[in-house]
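Exercise: predict the fold of this chain.
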Amino acid sequence: MDKLTAMTAFVRVVEAGTFTKAADTLKLPPSSVTRMVQGLEAELKVRLLHRTTRAVTVTPEGGAYYERVAKLLAELSDIESATKLQQGNLSGKVTVEMPSVISAVVVVPALPQFYAQYPDIELEIGVTNRPSDMVAEGVDCAIRMGIIEEEYLVARRIGNFSFATCATPALIETFGRPESPGDLARMPTVGMEYGRTGKPLPYRFMDGQKLFDVPLKHQLIVNDLSSYVAAAVAGIGVIQVPLYGVTQALAAGQLQLILDDWKTEIVPVHMLYAPNRYLNASIRVFINWVAELFEQHQDLRRV
């Protein structure tokens, strides 16, 4: 038995909560992970995990073993990463998940810069507006907006964004330029479905230090930011969208800002990833590169 691999498997089972999820992250059959953990228990002559048909829990002995093994794996990962960075020969595959417009507008256009530095790193970008189970899907890191629910992952804040309320010049001419958020009720609007709730995101503004929502009945509801912007450009209705998503449409005159005297909510952007013991050097450099990229983007950098 490869003890280091078995230790890694044990730690993954503890943190994933099931053998199946742990096996997915290791890209191994669940039976192999089970055998490795059983091998550790046999060698140590102690039960590390309680197993039921629904869940896996850690024994007191397993908890103590987990803490020390996790620390050891973190130190080994740091040593490996530092060595590879010094040699400058980073390679391997990084699987990353991000919203569609972040991919199209921010990350993908800048990738030539990344590959100029790290030509041997292979990136696999999964574009989604519905957060997945990173452990189960084997995702190394993910760019997420708003509230982070996965407490078992590291959430590194890499930026913020605010919203822009906008419409086509023709629509503004037809319905008049709104002077207050309440005036949106007399204009056609488009809704953007939020992945976690399945409901349209509210049009939200600030009154002093307080946020308030404007109740609206939408002409159209979509679940993708690119389609959301396209609907506005087509003249279907008003949208309230992250500013970074309409920079080009505003510059081209396809859309115009409305209610820009009214402040909107500031939403944080995080990079999610597993604790440091699972970060190889290629994942580390990609995370740092994305953080620097956001810092250079005026509509996304931290304030």
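Check your answer against the key: The radius of gyration is 24 Å.
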